[in-house]
Amino acid sequence: MVHTWIMDVTPLQNDMIYRRCYNRLPDWRREKADRIRPLEGKMQSAGAWILYQQMRKYYELSDQMPYNLSHSGKYALCSVSTQPDAQVGCDVEMIKENKLRLAERYFCPGEVAWIQSQTTEAEQAEGFYRYWVLKESFIKAIRLGMKQDLCEFEIALDEPEARLVRQPDAFPEKYYYQEYRTDAGDARIAVCSTEKKFGELHYLDERNII
User: Fold this and answer.
1) Rounded to whole angstroms, how far apart are CA atoms 131 and 35?
2) CATH, range 2-208
3) CA pair distance 72, 138, nearest whole angstrom
4) How far apart are CA 46 and CA 32, in angstroms?
5) How far is Cα 65 from Cα 61, in angstroms, rounded to an integer?
6) How many CA atoms lie within 13 A of 70 on its CB side?
7) Does the pLDDT of residue 145 top 90, yes or no?
8) Using CA atoms, how far apart are residues 78 and 76, in angstroms rounded to an integer?
9) Pairwise CA distance, residues 61 & 209, whole Å
10) φ and ψ of 153, to 5 deg
11) pLDDT confidence bin for 210, thresholds 50/70/90
12) Rounded to an integer, what distance in angstroms lies between the CA atom of residue 1 and that of residue 83?
């Protein structure tokens, strides 16, 4: 099972709350937060790790279980698998303006065509970010990040669930997708894993941040 939790990091704008979270971070994570200059980035970095810690505690998981973190805007996201040999990647992105030109540069022709087929500008923007998080979650699952060419694998959205119709030869495993949308409808989320079962999106309550 792959569990995915999300939190709003806005409360960390309060210096007292941020410091409480910061003090719970391991040394290497504190150093990472210290290197980030924008306050939003510090909040995201600290929040994502607090989210991971809370998930490990709740599900009683060892630190050997595969996990992945993501953040965008006011959101921090964490996905954790209960299978030690699973691969897992997650991504969250705030929905902003349509970036069709970016899609034309980096996505597969079929993916671009799907985005272009959406009727309105808002639908095209949503389509772009839907594809973006699906792409990102895969390259994070295989642990290559942006070293992996986004055109070397293709995702189809012609069925109820997103599916890989072409993938890099170096990664022949079967990968599964789970998509989520924030309650506010302002962000898209995707999780990619070799594990087939996914839980529902869980929101970490503000009271549990500290």
Assistant:
1) 30
2) 3.90.470.20
3) 17
4) 9
5) 7
6) 30
7) no
8) 7
9) 19
10) -145, 150
11) low
12) 7
What pLDDT digit, counting tens, does each position of 47-97 carry?
999 999 999 999 999 999 999 999 999 999 999 999 999 999 999 999 999
- Contact yes or no for 191/1 (Cβ under 8 A): no
Q: Where are the alpha helices (DSSP H) in the chain?
A: 15-22, 27-35, 39-59, 100-106, 109-116, 121-141
Handedness of CA 24, 25, 30, 36 (dihedral sign): negative
**In degrees rounded to 5, what are phi and psi of residue 71?**
-160, 150
| Main-chain phi, psi angles of 57, to 5 degrees | -65, -45
This prediction has a pTM of 0.94
CB 68 within 8 A of CB 89: yes
Q: Is the pLDDT of residue 208 over 90?
A: no
Residue 169 has pLDDT above 90, yes or no: yes
At what angle are helices 109-116 and 121-141 packed, to 10 degrees?
Answer: 150
Any residues with CB less than 8 A from the CB of 97 and at least 6 apart, and which? 125
Residues paired with residue 75 on neighbouring β-strands, in sequence order? 8, 72
**For 116, how many CA atoms within 13 A lie in the half-sphere containing its CB?**
12
DSSP letter for 205, please.
P
Q: Length of the chain in residues, anyone?
A: 210
Beta strand 88-94 with 75-81 is unpaired
- Which candidate, 138, 155, 154, places its Cα nearest to that of 193? 138
